[in-house]
Amino acid sequence: MRFFATIPFLTAFLVASTMAEPQPVAAAVGETNDFVARGLAGSLLHLREPEAMAASPGDALMERDTNTHLAKRFDGARFTWFNVGLGSCGRVNVPSDFVVALNGAQWDNRAHCFQTVTVSANGKTAQAQIVDLCPGCPYGGLDFSSGLFQYFAPLDVGVLSGSWNFN
């Protein structure tokens, strides 16, 4: 019975969290549900790192939703290779480094610089670090350093298909 009592609250909470001006949860659902509002808002904020806590519960939902792509696995991804050097993240790499350039659609203004990814292709798996932008790569695609590409196949293959995910 307790679950059904919170349905009007959840509906009001979701509506309040999508308003142009953030509203306090209690104002969106009325003072009678203030205890429930504080409990849910607290639960949502605990899903995030303390130093990155949002100003409102609506912000917490949006932050959690925008970061879910970090856990997603990208299957059927297109992998190519490039000659490394000074990458868009500001570091110089050499061909033998296991590094990748991230496609433009996921680049997010350098937000993923130096994050690691796990890549699988041709029955092998390796970890690599994001150090550059690949503006010509499709969504989900990665450009490998020549050393990383050669771990999976000879360079003359040119294009591989596989899967990867953020670590």
TrEMBL record:
Keywords: Signal. Residues 1-20 form the signal peptide. It comes from the Eukaryota. This is RlpA-like protein double-psi beta-barrel domain-containing protein.
